[in-house]
Each structure stands twice: as C-alpha cells, then as structure tokens.
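User: Reviewer 2 asked us to show a designed sequence for the structure in our supplementary figure. I'm pasting the structure tokens here. Could you produce the per-position amino acids so we can include them in the response letter?
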C-alpha cells in the first residue's frame, strides 16, 4: 500500500520555506538574475588542460617522456613570476594535467604562454584553455 502525504502535512512545510515559494511562483525560473551594478567582478580564470599528444610514447610513464622536463621548466617560469597558482598531472589512465593561472591574466596571455610550451610545440602534449568561473571558495 502506498502512503501519500496529505495537503495538511505538506502545507505547513511549504509555508515555512519562503525560498521554495518564491522559486515556484517565478514565471522565468531558468533566467539568470541580473547582477547589481555595484556587484563585485566575477573571478574568471583561464585553466590550461594538457593531454598526451601525437608524440607521447605509450607504455612510458609521464616522467620517462622525452621533453617533459622542458614542459615543467616552462611553467616554473610562471611560478617564479607569481602567475601560476597550481599545476600538476592527472594520475588516472588518461594522463595529462592542468595548470591554474593566477587571477587577472587574460585569455590571450594564457593562450600565448601555453602554446609556447616546448612540449606542446613538439607534439608531446596537446593543450586546451577553458574559461572557469570560480563560483565557490572557502573564506
């Protein structure tokens, strides 16, 4: 036998949750709210993703790949210039890795630097730059 909640059970719950009522009565729930003019700027980063390229040697670990050290040295330049927050390899079977540039770098600057990577130029790695909106952060 199925038991369905009655209206007398649901009504007090709906009345006590004003945000649910506002969402339910909104005629355009999929439309993004307008940001106030004085709202803080969005923190958008251009994240660099790497994956094995056509010259990647299957069967060798990432540290055995010819040209990987020049890739690491390339990004250490950004680390010294305080333009890189985090970077490193993915540890799953797909390989590759990612680099998280510091806030304030333009997409053009990130793309130019990523394409100048010797490991990308040699075909050891492929690169993809994707915009990322930081929507959550700890205080």
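Assistant: Here is a per-position design you can include in the supplement:
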């Amino acid at each position: 036998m199925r038991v369905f909640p009655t209206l007398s059970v649901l009504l007090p719950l709906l009345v006590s949750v004003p945000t649910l009522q506002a969402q339910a009565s909104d005629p355009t729930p999929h439309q993004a709210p307008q940001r106030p003019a004085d709202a803080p700027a969005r923190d958008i980063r251009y994240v660099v993703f790497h994956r094995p390229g056509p010259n990647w040697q299957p069967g060798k670990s990432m540290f055995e790949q010819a040209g990987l050290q020049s890739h690491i040295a390339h990004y250490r330049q950004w680390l010294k210039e305080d333009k890189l927050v985090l970077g490193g390899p993915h540890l799953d079977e797909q390989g590759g890795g990612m680099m998280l540039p510091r806030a304030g770098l333009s997409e053009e600057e990130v793309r130019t630097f990523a394409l100048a990577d010797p490991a990308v130029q040699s075909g050891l790695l492929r690169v993809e730059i994707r915009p990322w909106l930081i929507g959550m952060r700890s205080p």
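For the response letter, you might also mention the following. Strands lie at 44-52, 84-89, 97-101, 125-133. Residues 55 and 122 are 8 Å apart (CA to CA).
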